[in-house]
Design brief:
Elements: H1 2-17, H2 19-23, H3 27-32, H4 42-62, H5 71-90, H6 100-112, E1 120-123, E2 126-131, E3 138-139, H7 141-158, H8 167-185, H9 189-204, H10 210-231, H11 242-249, H12 261-274, H13 286-289, H14 301-333, H15 338-363, H16 380-398
Antiparallel strand pairs: 1-2, 2-3
């Protein structure tokens, strides 16, 4: 009996000395320990699954009043995304690290594909779409180009093995990002900004020195400012098209385009504010339902969500995105492969930028760029790519060396 009491006392003292270990064993950690999640990274899987369901609910609600919103088409995107993500999960992602040339060629093919007669398709005056001949199936190659460039930049950067020794090497690495970015800028402003941000984050985490990064960021802001200013001067070649320029400036002064993007911005902010705490309910959004808010199911889907689900719905959405992005970065920190780490950083930064930009433009604090909200905005192309990105994260987890 004294021996049993002594052992019990030791166990109590041990638990008192390590209270954080017991408290820190969170629900996600418990789920991760289940046999079901043996080779699946539970935090990313569950948060992305919840976001897909949330997005389908929003699209279903939008389809009640918006003819262009089709839940069946969105579900097709979900199905294709799950199929591709499952294939990616089974594949060892590290094989892409030796395929930089192939990835660059694929990027160029995707860029020129919408220009090929018989494949080119325009949606609401916007080019950059491809429609398969003889079918109604169409997609945006630029969406897939996001992931292709993440793999490409991560593959090139990983060859420096975590240390970029010379400024010349740093400039060469920046050119690997800059040239594809400029190409895409001529076709899709929003997607090109996503590519630039995710690629820059990869380069910044690949061993580049701070004294190189800071001047580069300052130079980019100066170049962007000059591009915008020169695009306002008539009689000289413009990099930005007129509608792109209006989108970049209208959030500062909505009167620049009172009947176009300026009007859209005003209606979006009204929709967000009118949702209140609990929201108006599914199918009850007046701004979108009565046609006051254009593109409520795509570009301004957050405004639709805020109007119908209110502050509570927005908070749930942000918590799910926070879990998704934070868990991806946590896995990046726990991954031994430099290539895998950079790929995860690129994907997390892609999600972060899209979330911040889409929500920001609905609130009037960011330029209108047409960037979709991951997993939520209507569009099969975007949904396929976002779910495929989850499959890439799961592939990194499955083939990790060190436990995450």
């Amino acid at each position: 009996m004294p021996h049993a009491v002594a052992n019990r006392t030791k166990r109590n003292m041990h638990s008192q000395r390590n209270p954080q270990k017991k408290a820190g064993f969170s629900l996600l950690e418990r789920l991760q320990a289940l046999p079901l999640f043996k080779n699946v990274y539970a935090p990313v899987f569950l948060s992305s699954f919840a976001l897909v369901i949330y997005g389908c609910i929003v699209v279903a609600s939008a389809s009640l009043t918006i003819a262009d919103a089709s839940l069946s088409r969105q579900l097709i995107g979900v199905f294709l995304g799950v199929v591709l993500a499952s294939i990616m999960w089974r594949y060892d992602y590290r094989g892409f690290s030796q395929m930089t040339t192939v990835l660059l060629v694929l990027y160029i093919v995707l860029f020129f594909l919408p220009m090929i007669p018989g494949f080119s398709y325009s949606a609401k005056g916007m080019t950059g779409w491809v429609q398969l001949p003889g079918t109604s199936l169409r997609f945006q190659p630029s969406e897939l180009m996001k992931l292709v460039l993440i793999f490409y930049i991560a593959g090139v950067a990983s060859k420096y093995q975590g240390t970029i020794e010379t400024f010349k090497d740093y400039c060469i690495l920046c050119l690997h990002l800059g040239i594809p970015f400029v190409l895409l800028l001529t076709q899709d402003l929003g997607t090109s900004l996503v590519v630039l941000f995710s690629g820059a984050c990869i380069i910044g985490c690949s061993g580049a020195k701070k004294e190189w990064i800071i001047p580069t960021v300052i130079a980019l802001f100066i170049i962007a400012f000059l591009v915008v200013i020169t695009s306002m001067i008539p009689g000289i070649p413009h990099i930005l098209k007129d509608y792109q320029l209006k989108r970049l400036t209208v959030f500062i002064d909505p009167s620049v385009d009172p009947s176009g993007d300026g009007y859209n911005l005003q209606q979006a902010t009204i929709a967000v504010g009118s949702g209140g705490f609990w929201g108006k309910g599914i199918g009850m959004a007046t701004q979108a339902g009565q046609g006051f808010l254009p593109e409520a199911h795509t570009d301004f889907v957050f405004a639709l969500l805020a109007e119908e689900f209110g502050f509570v719905g927005c908070t749930i959405l942000l918590l799910l995105f926070a879990c998704l992005i934070w868990s991806t970065l946590k896995l990046a920190k726990a991954t031994d492969s430099l290539f895998g780490r950079l790929v995860l950083i690129g994907i997390a930064s892609m999600w972060l930028f899209q979330v911040f930009e889409n929500i920001g433009m609905c609130l009037g604090i960011m330029p209108i760029t047409g960037i979709p909200l991951p997993f939520i905005s209507y569009g099969a192309s975007s949904m396929v790519v976002q779910i495929l990105a989850v499959g890439i994260v799961e592939s990194v987890y499955k083939n990790r060396v060190k436990a995450g």
